[in-house]
């Protein structure tokens, strides 16, 4: 299982990576492994400003639909359009081509409350 150190993690199994003033958000390798084959990603919040931990979309696998939670407050700028035709990218490359959304974090976005790779690893091994 992959635990990149250049991202922060949530207890709900999302990750966020800040690049300049834009952040990429996706689900973790652990989450995609637990979910199984992803068949659809539904994100209807593009252009909206959401609070931390607010639902920004859903991810669908063969047997269930799971909510996706925003790691920090911010505006949803863009969704990964490639996932419309290739939702399996989330399974194949969750930290790269399988990113879900780009966000402009709020000025008071609390990255310090998120988990680093070691803390996330400890969480899923409990």
UniProtKB/TrEMBL annotation:
Binds 1 lipoyl cofactor covalently. Residues 22-104 form the Lipoyl-binding domain. One of its GO terms (cellular component) is cytosol. Its cofactor is (R)-lipoate. The glycine cleavage system is composed of four proteins: P, T, L and H. NCBIfam families: gcvH, PRK01202.1. PANTHER family: GLYCINE CLEAVAGE SYSTEM H PROTEIN (PTHR11715), GLYCINE CLEAVAGE SYSTEM H PROTEIN-RELATED (PTHR11715:SF3). This is Glycine cleavage system H protein. The lineage of its organism: Bacteria, Pseudomonadati, Bacteroidota, Bacteroidia, Bacteroidales.
């Amino acid at each position: 299982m992959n635990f990149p150190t250049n991202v922060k993690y949530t207890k709900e199994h999302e990750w966020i990576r800040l690049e300049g003033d834009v952040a990429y958000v996706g689900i973790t390798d652990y989450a995609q492994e637990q979910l199984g084959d992803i068949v659809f990603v539904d994100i209807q919040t593009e252009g909206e400003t959401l609070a931390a931990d607010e639902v920004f979309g859903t991810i669908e696998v063969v047997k269930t639909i799971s909510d996706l939670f925003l790691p920090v407050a911010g505006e949803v700028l863009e969704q990964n359009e490639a996932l419309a035709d290739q939702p399996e990218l989330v399974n194949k490359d969750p930290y790269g081509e399988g990113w879900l959304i780009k966000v402009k974090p709020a000025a008071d976005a609390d990255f310090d409350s998120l988990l680093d790779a070691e803390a996330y690893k400890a969480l899923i091994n409990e």
